[in-house]
Structures are given as structure tokens and as C-alpha cells.
## 1
Amino acid sequence: MAPPSPPPVSLRVTVLSLRILTTVFLVITVIILSTNSVTVESQGTALKFHFKDVYAYRYMFSAAIIGLVYAVIQLFFTISELATRIKNPINYQLDFYGDKIISYLLATGSAAGFGVTKDLKVALLALIALHSTDPVDKFFSRGYASASMLLFAFVCLAVLSVLSSYAISKH
């Protein structure tokens, strides 16, 4: 029996492009979240908030780190496959299951980030009397930005998940 033919070059380039985009979106998410902090002064008291103080942001950060590790590993495999034109049959399984699991992780991380950002912003502004809401707005805008980048990474992985379903059905 002849070995299965490799996927067309255009499909492999599309997969590589999506893997690169996923990695870039996840790196941006990690950078934005890890630098997100604010000091709020209210009634003579300074309160410092960091992303680690919010459990949903921690979850979002963890999802982004796990996704980034997976994306880098998959990027290595994709570049190797593109260079050698040989794909290990085990990689089809890794692509299929890994893309699905990690995409769901990224989707839940993004949803948690959007939800907590909206709820905390309203609650914080209602509880603390501030002279200016600019620092708080900046903190939560970064929360929205990182959740958006995580959502974009999810979309890329969701497309890759469909492509890996197609690839595994052919092999």
C-alpha cells in the first residue's frame, strides 16, 4: 500500500500562517496581561491592582501560556513538515485533539476575561470615589485588549481544528 500523499502546498502554507498568527496573538495576550496594573488613589489611600489579583485574569493568563506552549510546539512541527514534506502519522492525532482542546481552553479564557472586565469595572467604579477614572479605564481596557487577542487566537485555532479534522479524515 502506498503512503498517503502529503497535503497541497497551499494548505500547508495556510496552516503555517494560522499557527504563526495564533502564536503572535498569544504572545501579545501574555505581554498585555503581565504588564497590566493600576494604582488607584481614593480618599487618601492608594490601592494597587495587578492582573494577579483577579482570578479570571489569572485563568486567562494561564490559558494563554498553555496555548502559547502548544502553539510553539505545533509551529515547530509545521515548519518541520513544510521543510521535509514528511508528516509523522502521530502528528495527525496531535493536531486533531490538541487543536480542539486548546481552542476550547482559549475560548473559555477569553470569555472569562470579557465577563470579569465588564463586571469589575462597574463594581469598582461604584465602590470607590475617584477624582479621575482614567487609570481604572486603562486597566480594564487592557483587560479587554488581552481578552480580544485571546479570542483572535481561539478563532485561528478553531479554523486549524477544522483543517485538522479534514486532514485526519483523509488519513
## 2
Amino acid sequence: IQERLPNKYIETLSDKDRTDALRACLLVYILTATTIVPRQFQLEATLATLNGHDSVITAGTGCGKTLCLIIPMLLRPDTISMTISPLKRLQNTQV
């Protein structure tokens, strides 16, 4: 797992955010049977949500945007977050 972590990014974080980021990495790594470690943009979005900030994620299909929604819910199950997705528009453009 060590060689797959975004270490340079994690080193820049405060102690609290570093702890949350490493917990997120460990959680995803274990739940995916050691196949996935969150990427930097996923950790950035996760930490934004955990710290009560908004984030906008623009990425292609299959890039891992859903993980940005799931990690905060797993780390802080007693919190609420809102996701706005242009799914109807996406469906129309891909048909």
C-alpha cells in the first residue's frame, strides 16, 4: 500500500486531515481486497466534505467519483451530505 499512496500530498496535510486521509486509504484498501487506494483528487474531495466544505468534481466515466461520496459516509456515518448530479443530462447525451 505504501508505494501506491499519494505521499507527497499526504505530507502536506494537517495532523487531523492526515489521519482522515490515511484512515480513508486503509478503509478502501481493505474493503476492496487490496486492489484500490484512493487517488489524490478523491482524498481532496473527501477531506473537503469531512471539513464541511463544498467540492466540485469533474472527471470522466470510471474515474472514481463515486468513491468521493462513499468515503466520507464510511468515515463519519452520523453526518449528512448532498450530491447534485446531472444524471438526466448525462443520460440524454449518451443515448
## 3
Amino acid sequence: MVETCEREGPVVEPGYAAREFSKQGVKPGELAIISKEHVAPYERPALSKAYLFPEGYARLPGFHVCVGSGGERLLPEWYKEKGIELILSTEIVKADLPTKSLTSAAGETFTYDVLIIATGSTVIRLTDFKVEGADAKNIFYLREVDDADKLVEAIKAKKGGKAVIVGGGYIGLELSAVLKLNNLDVTMVYPEPWCMPRLFTAGIAAFYEGYYANKGVKIIKGTVAVGFGSDANGEVKDVKLKDGKVLEADIVVVGVGGRPLITLFKGQVEEEKGGIKTDAFFKTNIPNVYAVGDVATFPLKLFGDIRRVEHVDHARKSAEQAVKAIRASEEGKGIEEYDYLPYFYSRSFELSWQFYGDNVGETVLFGDNNPASPTHKFGTYWIKDGKVVGAFLESGTPEENKAIAKVAKLQPPVKSLEILEKEGLEFASKV
């Protein structure tokens, strides 16, 4: 029996793993998926985008895996037909790898022959830091369908109200946009000098901050939320900032990052860089135990490094790689090492960007990055040791996005930054 173990984490990897197992000829009764959530695996990115749209919104079963990668939608019936057991609404609270057993919150024990750890990440909560008033009603974190449902109800209840977004990363940018589409008065607050600092340069961020401002989103940088006030009903009414400002709020959404969920396996598996250390086949140091997605620290062949990557694209592909490795091991065969090109993307308002590779070294900004321009299209290259190692593009066509992905993968040499800036997208199209 192969068990795929989730906790609060992703509901992406198990679905893609199940599809790959099916391709590999899994027999009825050989695979079980254990999940804390009450629904079959789904594409989590929808929760911060179409799920919250005021019109034409997405709902399950519309975004069950594997529609996010253009594949078949795997409904609960699909798992039943394949003889794959879906054990839902079941939180695993103890893992004992030496005895190959898992224990649920209800006291059930599950044993396995092979385990895939797909526990993903959990959100960082302000209550973890004892922020005053952070337990007030209508302060939201977005991770699961239930979280999104609660936020949808609050948006309806507080129609035309004030929303404060704490954090300027993925969640901050996507939620600010979608709440603005719901006609809320939106303010973003983050401590960094610009949004998405882990990926964006100052030049890239300036476009998005300007664009959001033009859409009516207010941005307050360089400060943090240090407390929340609430009314007699216990609902949040304001956000107190470190710089002394107090913002009125009917809804607060917090997006200040996540942590890989590896506590169940602490002291039982080798760890590195905050995750569970694996090889290029997602095998851990424990026989027949694999780790995929957010929790895996794996060899990134392209850069000769080991890293942990938090993104749905890697979640899907790492799950498939682990399944192929499991089957190959059973058959005494070998498979190719995981050779991943880091990929990130986001969509908000009418915007859509993609990034491939690594954001290290010098940068070149090209194209029209005027947030007021009706024909904006711009990008950035990252250059290290005379080679392009990363590429970003806003509002690219499918062909243009493929071109920048190819650049990041092949890492072509660059003669001069000035020429690269002048050529812009043309450089990518010639590679």
C-alpha cells in the first residue's frame, strides 16, 4: 500500500501523484490519499483568483486537479473507479517511520509500504506572534476552500466596506486586486520598500505599485500591523500600524508567508534548508519514504544547488517524478533525474506575468513599463557570470513566454547589458 499523506498542506500533489500512479498501472487497493480537507484534490491557485470573483466565479468541482496543467479533471468518482482510496477529513497527528505507521486525530492507525509526504505549507499567523487583537473575527488567511468560503461570505456581508491586506507578496497582490474587483476600499500594508521583494526588482515593482494605485488600491510601505481593534461583536474594526497610523477595516486578509509542514517527521528524516532533504527522485534518507512539493529540499540540477521551491508547478512535477521513481524502483529500472526550471506566475486585474530561472546577478529592464500605458509590455533579464540565468515578462503571448523560458533554461551568453536592454524580447526570440 502506498500512502500519500497531507495535513494542512497542498491538495495538488496527491492528485497529480494519483494520475501518474494510474498511468503506471496502479491496482485497486494499492494507493490511498489521506487528507485533512473534506474534498478531493484541487488546484489551489484558484482560491486567490477566480474563486473570489464577483461574477463568473470558480467553484468545485470545476477546478479539481488536473485542470491546472490542461489535464483531465479528476472527480471523486475517478478515484473510486481506479480503486484509489480517498480518506478525507482525516488529520494525521503522528508519524512513526520506523514502524511505517500514521495516526489520525481520531485515533485511527494507518500502515504503509511506501509513503509520499505531501504535507505542503501552513500559513504564518499573526496570532503566532501574539499580535494584539489578531484573533478578531473577519481577519482571514487563505489556504483552503473553507478559508475562501468564509472570505466570500464576508465580502457579501461587508459590501462596499474597507479591506486591509497585510503583506505585499503573492497573496497580497492577488487579494488586493480581487477585493478591489468586489468594490471594496482596499489598502495594502507591507514592511519592505517594494512589493514581492523575493522576486521583483525595484523597477518591476514600480509598475505594479503604479498600476494598482491607478486602480484605486492604496499602498502603505515600510511599516507593519502591530494590533487590531474590534467592535462589540468581536469583529475587526481597525488595524494599528507601527508608524502610528490606524486604518479602518471591515475585512483584513493576512498574507505574510508560510512554513513547510514537517513537524510530524522531525528527528526521523534528514532536513536541510527548512525542508526534508531528498535526492533527484524525491527519496528521503529513509527507505520507501518520499517527500514532494513545498516540503522537499532537492537538487536543482540547472544551478548545481539544493533548494526548496514553493510553487504549484513544482508541486505537480515533483509528485509525478516521485511516482515514476517508485515504479522504476519496483521494476528494477532507472529514470532520469529531476531537471527542474523554476517557474512562477501570477494573474491579477488584466495583468499576467511569468518568471523562469533564477533572480540573481545584474538586471536589465526592457520594454514599456509605464503603468498608465494601454500597451504595457515589459520584462527583465538577470545576468550572472556573463550569462542570462533568469527572465521575467509581463503581458507576454504564449510564444513569448516560451521564448523567455528557453532563455532561462539555456542560459545564453550576453555581450553587453546595453545591447541586451536594447534588444529586449528580440534577444529571447533569437535563442
